[in-house]
Write a structure and sequence with these properties.
The chain has 313 residues and is α/β, with parallel strands linked by helices. The chain folds into 2 domains: 221 residues, Rossmann fold; 60 residues, Alpha-Beta Plaits. The chain is 34% helix and 28% strand. It is built from 12 helices and 14 strands. The strands form 3 sheets. It has a 6-stranded mixed β-sheet, sandwiched between helices. Helix 6 links the parallel strand 7 and strand 8. The longest helix has 16 residues. The mean pLDDT is 91.
Length: 313
Amino acid sequence: MRVSAPDTRVVLAVRDLRKRYGQTVAVDGASFQIRRGECLALLGPNGAGKTTILRCCLGLTPPDSGEIRLFDEPVPQRARGVRVRVGVVPQLDNLDPDFTVFENLLVYGRYFGLPDATLRSRIPGLLELAGLEQKARAPIGELSGGMKRRLTLARALINDPELIVMDEPTTGLDPQARHLIWERLKGLLAAGRTILLTTHFMDEAQRLADRLAVIDHGRKICEGAPRELIRSRLEAQVVEVYGDGVHAWARDAGPRLAARIEMTGETVFCYTEDAGPIARDLESRPELRFLSRPANLEDLFLRLTGRELRDDS
């Protein structure tokens, strides 16, 4: 847990951002800002517009309208010059397979005009941060998926960036690799770096983000600190109920026991301020099983964006 308050200086400010591809509205009036030392997570279903927002903020995709200021410089007009202060972790790893781990960092650092002496002194620390000290001379083809993702993170730090932009940084990683990256990112935040990330992992957002913005159909539908959003928009407790006859139970008993009920497949979600009455009722019904827990960020996300499956279109 970081104890120092974030710097009040704004690193990135986005106002009324809009982007359309033909008849498809990718971003529809999104606005947010990030202050130095903060982590802001953009959450949303597939196709919600998160990656388009990141690309616009980096000057890689021109918006149709709106205002973006990165380090108080206009984007995309001054994007090329200001990107030297930004590190980017793309959604898909794009490491050069013809180079070793060390060479990937060295060559990438040269794009920023950094002298080789500076890069060679910086690379060992980045390899240690990524847990790849023993892989410096290894070709990329010998790395596991988790190692490649950690190398991509290390590469994004080669220019000592003030802002780190990450598009789903831990997708496809096993739990151990995810936790290692989270610890490294917490260390960067503690050192005063600023992070903008998109993620599908609710626990990732809750562990890292000072604030989160939920994006759906290109619009920002809420923004705030994770705990505050959960407290203000959800009941305190959730009881998950499943088993034979669960739908009949939900129809007959659920409305008098829970403030709100959602049914997904063979599971009934009961939202309530006091789970006691629901638990006592269910204890007398051996055909039903249940789990009682506090409401969490995933509950908030599903309430705001719905439970239906989305594709990438």
